[in-house]
UniProtKB/TrEMBL annotation:
It is found in: Cytoplasmic vesicle, COPI-coated vesicle membrane; Golgi apparatus membrane. Gene3D superfamilies: Tetratricopeptide repeat domain (1.25.40.10). Pfam families: Coatomer_E. Keywords: Cytoplasm, Cytoplasmic vesicle, ER-Golgi transport, Golgi apparatus, Membrane, Protein transport, Transport. PANTHER family: COATOMER SUBUNIT EPSILON. One of its GO terms (molecular function) is structural molecule activity. This is Coatomer subunit epsilon. It comes from Mycena metata. SUPFAM superfamilies: TPR-like. Belongs to the COPE family.
C-alpha cells in the first residue's frame, strides 16, 4: 500500500495539478517513495511541455528501469528529428523487454511504470497496436487502464473504452483514478447530459488542497457541451490565469467565444491559438478544411450574370 505522501503525489498527478506536484520536495533517496515521486514529477514536467527539466531532475547514472523509461520519453518528446524519436522509442522497446527478465533494478511498481511510459510514447507516435500490446490487455494496473481508455477514446472506440472500464471495476477499488476514467468516457459518450463528469470535476474543484487548471479546463469543456457558455468561459478564463500558455484551454475558449457569437473575441483568441500553438489539432484541422474549400472553389466556374435586354 502506498504511503499517504505518495498517495498525495498520485492525486496531484492524476488531477493535473502539475505545478503543485513539481513544487513538492523529493523524499530522501533511501525512501521507497523516492523513485515513484521522482518519476511522477518528471511526468508532470512533460505534461507541462518542459522535457528539458526532466534531464536536470533525474539522476543520469540511475539504472532504475522507470527512471530510464521517463528519461527516454522526455528524449522522444524533445526530439528534433525522426531519427532521434526512433532512437528513444527503441530504448523504450528494449526496456519493455528488459522488465520481463529477473535481473531488473526496480520494484513491481517501477516495471508497471515502464509499460505506461512506453505505451504513452507509442500512442503519441501513432503506433496504436504496439501501445496497446505494451500496456497489456487484461492488465490489473489502473494507470495502464487509464492510458488504454484514452487511446480508445482517441480513435473513437468508446465501446472498447467502456469495456475496459467495466472490466476494471471488477477488481479495482473505487478510487480517484477510476472515477477520472469514468468521467473521461462520460465526456465522449454524452450520457445523461454529461452529469457524471460535471459532478466529478465540480467535486474535485471543491478540494481546498488542490489547485488544478487542468480540472478547471475539463469542467469548462463539460459546460460547453452542456451549453452553459458563460459558466464555461468563467472556468476557462480562471484556468488561463493559472496557466497562460495551455493550448487546450485556449482552444476551448475559442470554441466558447464562437458559440457565444462574439466574433471579435473569437477572432482574437483564434489568432493567438494559431500563433502560439500552430501544431494544435484544431489549428491543423481548420487549415486542412480551408485548403479543401479553396481547392473545391477553384474548380467551380461562376456563370455570367444575366443582363436584362434593353427596352
Amino acid at each position: 500500500m502506498a504511503s499517504s505522501e505518495l498517495y498525495h503525489v498520485k492525486q496531484q498527478f492524476y488531477l493535473g495539478a502539475y505545478k503543485s506536484l513539481i513544487g513538492l520536495s523529493l523524499p530522501d533517496p533511501s525512501s521507497p517513495d523516492y523513485i515513484p515521486t521522482l518519476v511522477y514529477q518528471a511526468r508532470a514536467h512533460l505534461a507541462l511541455n518542459d522535457p528539458a527539466a526532466v534531464a536536470s531532475l533525474v539522476p543520469a547514472a540511475s539504472e532504475n528501469v522507470s527512471v530510464k523509461a521517463v528519461s527516454a520519453l522526455a528524449r522522444y518528446v524533445s526530439a528534433a528529428d525522426s531519427a532521434k524519436q526512433e532512437a528513444a522509442l527503441e530504448e523504450l522497446r528494449d526496456l519493455a523487454v528488459e522488465i520481463e527478465g529477473e535481473d531488473v533494478e526496480g520494484t513491481e511498481h517501477d516495471k508497471l511504470s515502464v509499460r505506461v511510459l512506453a505505451g504513452t510514447a507509442f500512442a503519441r507516435a501513432g503506433e496504436i497496436e504496439e501501445a496497446l500490446e505494451t500496456l497489456f490487455a487484461e492488465t490489473e494496473d489502473l494507470e495502464a487502464v487509464a492510458v488504454i481508455v484514452q487511446i480508445y477514446l482517441s480513435i473513437n472506440r468508446t465501446d472498447r473504452a467502456k469495456k475496459e472500464f467495466d472490466r476494471a471495476k471488477q477488481w479495482a477499488e473505487d478510487d480517484l483514478l477510476l472515477q477520472l476514467i469514468e468521467s473521461s468516457i462520460g465526456l465522449v459518450a454524452a450520457k445523461d447530459g454529461y452529469s457524471n463528469p460535471n459532478s466529478f470535476y465540480t467535486e474535485q474543484l471543491g478540494n481546498p488542497s488542490l489547485s488544478s487548471p487542468h480540472i478547471l479546463t475539463a469542467r469548462g469543456v463539460t459546460r460547453i457541451l452542456r451549453n452553459e457558455i458563460p459558466e464555461a468561459k468563467s472556468d476557462l478564463e480562471e484556468s488561463l490565469e493559472q496557466q497562460k500558455a495551455d493550448a487546450e484551454t485556449l482552444a476551448a475558449f475559442v470554441v466558447a467565444a464562437g458559440i457565444e457569437s462574439k466574433r471579435g473575441e473569437a477572432d482574437e483568441l483564434w489568432a493567438r491559438l494559431q500563433t502560439e500553438h500552430p501544431a494544435h489539432p484544431l489549428v491543423l484541422d481548420v487549415a486542412q478544411k480551408a485548403a479543401l474549400f479553396d481547392e473545391s472553389a477553384a474548380k467551380f466556374t461562376v456563370p455570367p450574370l444575366a443582363v436584362a435586354a434593353a427596352a
